[in-house]
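Researcher: Here's a chain I'd like modeled. Treat it as a single chain, no partners, no ligands.
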Amino acid sequence: MSRQKKCLYQKIIALVCLFAVCLTGFAAYFAIKNTGSVQAAEYTFTDSSGNQVGDGGRIAMRRSRDTFAVLGIQSNDVCTWQSLNSSLVEIENADAAGFKKGGTAVLVVKQVDAQIRDVTVRVTIDHADGTSDIITMTLELAFSINEYLTGVQGVKLEKLYPEDSRKALIMNYGSSVNIGSSTDGNNFLKLIFGNGKEADWVCSNTDVIRYNAVNHVLQAVGAGPATLTVTWTEGTDSYTDTINVFVRPQILSQDGNTILAGGSSDTGSVVVRDGDMIQLTVESDANPQIAIGDKISWVISKGEGERSVLVRDSLGNLGQDYQDIDLYYFRSNGKSYYRVDAKSGEYNIQFYVKGTYKSFEDSKSGNCACGSVNLKTSVSCDFTDKGSYSKSRWYL
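Model: Modeled as a single isolated chain. Structure tokens:
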């Protein structure tokens, strides 16, 4: 390469570097101009259920009133919240101009426009050094069953697993929950907007849940999974939402007169011998074609806590001692029973709603919000095998 060409090449390289520096400077200038800060902090919005979204992201709001927070801020940062459409979503306790300071804010859905489903919330984060950042999130105002319920015995509204996006309705057998309007308390199952008492509620399996439209009460009538669908009509607009429902069983004595587990009056102890039967609160009148395996799962193990080992489960998984015990299901006179065939020994037997038992190891983690029946109740059973006697303990 000639000296002249080499010199020209070096000048081109220098110009390119200068151009890159200028671009970086302009970017920094506009960042300061628009946000007041060149900090590279990453901020995240989170709601009370743990759902998170980053700056500029979208999140579905499935509660008529929910608390949001900003993660990633410093202790001396000051956050100012603002709804860009306060007629649809307002910031609770905001000032006359619609602003509220604090690391958290309560957002309240005032109404939903059929044509406007998105509302942007802006947060200005002022730092101690005088700079600031502006972050936003977009709330998707989807029609929904209001995912907040408290104070109802035997009923809870929770995510079945932490990674789930929606909550599920988990009910004990025999429990019930009232359907309410927007003016009713948090112990009513309500809609994020609309009057639940005037909506249409449909249960996918009335052997599991039933809705009394006269008294506006949802009842858990049998163990198993189901879906609950609601439709609210306002003028010419119609809105629909569906949630999953899981009804936990009760375990009764063979004659049905004694609650062994899954109720508020558990006996805590009962004698069961090889070949005896226990009764399960499973109904099959409305949908007899749905098998027991689509309603209930069970698992038998030996040992305590983390040291427990699988014997067998209803999914077909077998442990080393799988021949020692088995359960046989049948129906008689409209009732559901399991016959116990077992050798002498100690066994842990747990019943789960179908869909809440994945595997034996997973069940020990306690990740599922719909636990087995009943984790705090033990039932003592005596089994006789070849003339010998041994005490067996059940966890139902």
